[in-house]
Design a protein that fits this description.
Blueprint (H helix, E strand, L loop, with lengths): L58 E6 L6 H15 L4 E5 L6 H14 L3 E4 L4 H13 L4 E4 L11 E4 L2 H18 L7 E5 L5 H16 L6 E4 L4 H14 L5 E4 L2 H14 L5 E6 L2 H8 L5 E4 L4 H13 L15 E3 L4 E2 L4 H4 L7
Parallel strand pairs: 1-2, 1-3, 3-4, 4-5, 5-11, 6-7, 6-8, 8-9, 9-10
Antiparallel strand pairs: 10-12
Helix pairs in contact: 1-9, 2-3, 4-5, 6-7
């Protein structure tokens, strides 16, 4: 793909932010005397919450997610398991991943009957899992809802989400900067979306359109795939056959991007700047190799963050990096742009497609 890796300033991140929310900060120093260095004394004010990473009372957390039939979902599950291993005071009970809402409901019923201390749930279908999540909450078990929202505020103590609309904003804002940088004027912009029936796809597209409108651009050609390699290749092939020249392409999902990239290579088309979405290791390697312009992160750490939050809730702790001592009701993670300038920073978070 044509890249602009030689241009330093305009390729910087268009949206800055951390991938995850830092949960445990070190406790304030308890010394009553300043160090003999001439530096100001450490803040010894007692905090309402602190030292959250130090072992506490052992808690049992139930985790249920969908079947890992997609690189991002596999990364969600593995990151959650790895995070639980970091804490000696977490006993994690993991339900078998499934795409069947009825099976997942059964898993949550088991967690309720076992009396776990908290549940982290990435539902196969938020609406379908709402009732059982409410039952868990009514049983006194805090539920941490991950990625796909329930249809009732009563179904979760805390919800942690990626920012789908923000992904579109980030991709569109970065596209605008590339258009200005390269003097494209009225650029020909194509969008390869995921499944159009999903709200997350609609949010990503809306954010992209809104960001482009801010710089006087719009999407000239929009097609939709199905978040799979095969659909990505077929959809991208049809797009390239229909449109002889394109300036920028944004593909919503780096898993389907494997097929999209194959279609580009098969058609021997590289006149455009290629932006991806989600943050796969493949995409980050392509960026490093100059075959892709950027990708927009959709953090695969959401369930891992959910494990941390569930631990705090079950132990009756707050967040030591907030003045408000309670765990927030809702956390939306950032959607930063990964480019050649910062790809090494984000590569460890890349998931294999």
């Amino acid at each position: 793909m044509r890249t602009t890796s030689g241009r330093p300033a305009a390729r910087l991140l268009t949206r800055l932010g951390l991938v995850t929310i830092a949960i445990g900060l070190a406790a304030a120093c308890t010394s009553n005397a300043p160090a003999d260095t001439g530096a100001p004394a450490a803040d010894t004010t007692e905090r309402a919450a602190g030292a959250n990473d130090e072992p506490g009372e052992t808690v049992v957390i139930g985790f249920s997610g969908p079947q890992a039939d997609h690189g991002w979902l596999a990364a969600i599950n593995s990151a959650a398991l790895a995070e639980a291993e970091e804490y000696s005071d977490i006993e994690l009970r993991v339900a078998e991943g499934t795409n069947d809402p009825s099976a997942q409901i059964s898993h949550i019923e088991t967690f309720i009957n076992e009396g776990v201390d908290a549940i982290v749930l990435l539902p196969t279908d938020g609406a379908a899992l709402t009732r059982i999540a409410i039952e868990a909450m009514e049983a006194g078990i805090p539920v941490v809802n991950v990625d796909r929202e329930f249809s009732s505020e009563f179904a979760a103590r805390t919800t942690i989400l990626g920012d789908n609309y923000g992904m579109g904003i980030s991709a569109g804002t970065h596209a605008c900067s590339l258009i200005e940088e390269n003097g494209m004027g009225d650029a020909v912009i194509a969008e390869i979306a995921g499944m159009d029936s999903l709200p997350l796809t609609q949010d990503r597209s809306q954010g992209f359109a809104d960001a482009l409108e801010a710089c006087g651009q719009d999407v000239d050609h929009r097609v939709a795939a199905e978040f799979t390699v095969e659909s990505g290749e077929a959809t991208a092939s049809n797009l390239l056959q229909a449109v002889p020249e394109i300036d920028i392409i944004w593909n919503h999902d780096d898993d389907q991007g494997v097929g999209v990239k194959a279609a580009f290579d098969n058609a021997n088309r590289d006149e455009f700047l290629f932006i991806g979405g989600a943050g796969s290791a493949n995409a980050m390697r392509w960026i490093r190799e100059g075959e892709m312009e950027a990708t927009v992160l959709y953090p695969p750490t959401q369930a891992a963050d959910g494990i941390r939050l569930a631990r705090l809730l079950a132990q009756g702790k707050g967040m030591s990096d907030l003045v408000q001592v309670e765990v927030p009701r809702r956390i939306v993670l950032d959607a930063p742009v990964v480019t050649a300038e910062n790809v090494e920073q984000y590569l460890p978070l890349g998931f294999e497609s």
